[in-house]
Design brief:
heterodimer; A: mainly beta; six-stranded mixed β-sheet; 12 strands; about 0% helix; B: mainly beta; seven-stranded mixed β-sheet; globular
Chain lengths: ~110, ~120
């Protein structure tokens, strides 16, 4: 069965700092990978996704993620965060074998101090 | 873009009553919809997968008689929490997959916060 782990539960940083959130998955076959963001009081929004091709994926709001197959990782990065990036971030994976059901990581709560 | 709505956004009910939550895909046909539950400060837990015109598939540990799911059309799925109890209080989120898209992307609704007194 597929599973996803996010290493950091809470991250606190200052504006303009760089952000990297770790995500590792366990599944030996082909995966689709996603990062979602949930701003306070809002619904989940897709930041970016990887299905195939270039392992460096660029998403909305200046976010990017890199798929490293050998490490089973899909870490999320942003070079310079803003206060408005305060949110909870979820990594997710789906596979054809699991009926394309999304499996979410535990989430990382990011607080950006102004 | 693909929009998914949920109604109601908040509901408070008495213990023992039933509550129905609707999930609609507004601008696309959703052959598959998913229902999740999110506990405070926790991740999303998939409850069931709902396919239009067929019975829902429930995840292990989810009571199908308690959480009734109906996917009567390509744009509407409903979740009914029957005989609700305080432990059912949670944030319920639906998502829908665009049947016309070649990508396996799910679009999420805004969620429904259920409080059972």
């Amino acid at each position: 069965a597929q599973s996803v782990s996010q290493h950091n539960h809470h991250v606190i940083l200052s504006e303009a700092a760089s952000l990297e959130l770790g995500c590792n998955y366990s599944y030996g076959g082909t995966v689709n990978l996603f990062w979602y963001v949930q701003y306070p009081g809002q619904h989940l929004q897709l930041l970016l996704k990887y299905f195939s091709g270039d392992p460096l994926v660029k998403g909305i709001k200046g976010f990017e993620a890199e798929f490293i197959k050998s490490k089973f990782s899909f870490n999320l990065r942003k070079p310079s965060v803003q206060w408005s990036d305060t949110a909870e971030y979820f990594c997710a994976v789906n596979t054809k074998a699991a009926g394309n059901k999304l499996t979410f990581g535990g989430g990382t709560r990011v607080l950006v101090k102004p | 873009g693909a929009v998914v709505s949920q109604h109601p956004s908040r509901v408070i009910c008495k213990s023992g009553t039933s509550v129905k939550i609707e999930c609609r895909s507004l601008d696309f046909q959703a052959t598959t919809m998913f229902w999740y539950r999110q506990f405070p400060k926790k991740s999303l837990m998939l409850m069931a997968t709902s396919n239009e015109g067929s019975k829902a598939t429930y995840e292990q540990g989810v009571e199908k008689d308690k959480f009734l799911i109906n996917h009567a059309s390509l744009t509407l799925s409903t979740l009914t929490v029957t005989s609700a109890h305080p432990e059912d209080s949670s944030f319920y989120i639906c998502s829908a997959r665009d049947g016309g898209s070649s990508y396996n992307e799910q679009f999420f609704g805004p969620g429904t916060r259920l409080t059972v007194l």
